[in-house]
Amino acid sequence: MISNVLHIDLSNKRFWIEERSDLFKEWLGGIGAGIRLLHEDCPKNIDPLSPENPIIFCIGPFNGIYPLASKTVAVFKSPLTKNLGESHAGGRCGVAMRMAGYGGIVIKGASEKPIYLVINEDGVKFRDASALWGMNSSSTVGRIIREREAGAGVRAIMRIGRAGEKLIPYACVITETFRHFGRLGLGAVFGSKKLKAILIHGRSSIRLSDPRLYRNTYDEIFNAVIKSGAMKKYHDIGTSLNVLPLNISSSLPSRNLQAAKFEGAELLSGENLAEKFLGRRAACAHCPVSCIHIAALRIPYENEPYFYKTKMIAYDYEPIYSLGCMLGIRNPEGFLKLVDIVDELGLDAISTGVILAWATECMERGIIETKDADNLVLKWGDYETYIKAIKKIVNLENEFYEALANGVEHASSLYGGREFALAYGGNEMPGYHCGLATHIGFAVGMRHSHLDNAGYDLDQKINAEKKFISIEEIAKALFEEESWRQILSSLVVCFFSRKVYTPEMISRCFSAMGIKVEPSELKIKGMKILKEKYKFKIREGFSFDNVRIPKRVLEIPTPQGLLREEDIRRGISEYKKLIEAEL
Fold this sequence. Notes:
Number of helices: 25
Helix content: 40-55%
Number of strands: 17
């Protein structure tokens, strides 16, 4: 099991390596090791944009060894929620860290001038990034660094766009052009440290104690993923396959959740995008599924008839929800252009779409006037105006756009419209309105994300089976799912493979590596890791009792009918009891 932690001090341009077998043995890796390092390295109540806020990357014992173990976990204090920041990204980061010999990377301090880092087996090189700072395109930054540095074919490049430089608290970090450390503002933390990019590469080898058992175990996982057809839908259509079923069941938020169906769903569906725009598929390192769907959009040059450039733009369900349905965009080309500008500037797609949807409804209601928006008129479906607004947000062009740049929770506290400001715990709401478990899950989840405990998935099962499940049972199911996901996030394997990586399978995987882990141990470790995460949240001021429930989610029917705030509050209370029993 890889156990070296690379520490980087940006203020003094120095680094050192610490051997932490104790950490990785006890906490597995990934989020388990990451949350312990965050407790160690993040002082209480610090400003998230201060030099003391660490950026921590961790991988797990399965990265580079088993299929779909392709993720890297980042932890930090979030500038958006002022609480736990946790973000996962695929691409090549995890394998690159493994090949460079590091299970964790901890970055602290701040540079006086823009820099980027080159990390390999020999340590760290600090490169001047002054010429890259302020570039409009994050993809251009990646291309320039690729041309300058070694490691072609085995390297990962993380970088921020102008949103991160401007310290916008929902700025993201882009890696390998089409993957992101998306939510909760890691890009702003990069920007606060004048850290433009990180390149990681290495060529270490991996030795396993039982090659035959490893081969057999690997083949079993591979066959379960590929030959069974379990992942075929992700390869063929990707997560955008969700659009039509959610729309049919009235679970798809549109126009700032003024409705839970969208009349343009067919046009933005994964099926339609694949048929008319799909340019290619891509896969994260060591993943056979290729779930990344990339559209080819032909864009004419200005004043040059019959001359076009082709932009390659990745899409999946979440940006379809936030930059399509929530903004009333029915035009697929317009939707793809919105995704492109959000990616180039380095913004989180979910937050951006939810914030613009709130602003549009505010303008409809007269809460915000045209003069506030610098003479832009935000209207549903008008993607060209939304593109202009996104640029103004990143440029912080006036007080209104500065408010939008700080998230919908902040903007609504200044302008009003709080009852339809869709955020939980300060984080903009994901794209599901499936029922009670969905919104309890958003309220209690570690990141207030759909990925924390999959409340939406529980609701879909309840809705399909048409059976009653008590609030106590919902809270228990969410708690158990979120606890188990800590194991998957510590290994670090993609959640798409969660039905393959059972406790028994994980135990066999460890055996092939010469490590004994009983299946019964894993559940205990998952709860232990979850407890450590809530300790950090509570330390930084989080309270279950103070989570705001947006009134809008109570006004629009779900497949279970209208939700009641008292039921959501009861679910939060029941979940809190389960957490407190562990604490």
